[in-house]
Please model this.
Amino acid sequence: MIGYTLYKYTHPSRAETVVWALQELGLDYETKELNAYKFEQRSPEFLAINPFGKVPTMTHDGKHFTESLAIIEYLNDLHPDRPLTPSHNDDNYAEKNYKLRQVISFGMIELESYVWILTKIKVLDNYENWPEGTAEKCITNIQNALPIATSWLDSQEYIAGDRFSLADIYYHHLFNWLKMLGVSLPEQAKAYVKRLSARENFPKK
Ligand SMILES: N[C@@H](CCC(=O)N[C@@H](CS)C(=O)NCC(=O)O)C(=O)O
Model:
């Protein structure tokens, strides 16, 4: 029996991060595709599952799950080895777990908040009428934060340490998103994205 149903779009979106996690964890899943251009995420049937009308949304065991990172944490917690986060048995668990939470928190606050507003301005036709100059301010904030995030790759292969983790799934999405917006990425970040995309369980379209 297929236990996990993932709602995603017909076009690539953040839902692909959950597909990647499902594949890294070796879980059987099915997908249901919504056409965002036809606003299928706003249909009464879908809003009954996720009242915020967004993907990724997952159903499992008769329950609904939303928010990409929280869904990935949930899936990881169900796996006996919890391979996408540090293990309590690891040496220096507290420090490793701090590092994972630190890099994710930095990405969400110092990068993604600006990336999201930039997307509204550049891709969604200045949805919400952001004042003139906002895009430039977003880019400045992103360019101030990017070197910090990429410096974590100076001495380690993965963004939060020497092991692949859910932070890599998150940053792969974030860096690709920046690329899509035309923000130039440091060479290190480009090489990192390429390395991660070559993983066996990376979703191939
Ligand atoms: N914080 C949410 C964001 C979800 C989100 O913004 N999803 C976008 C696709 S990447 C969406 O469904 N947007 C449709 C809409 O706003 O109508 C998460 O990480 O899952």
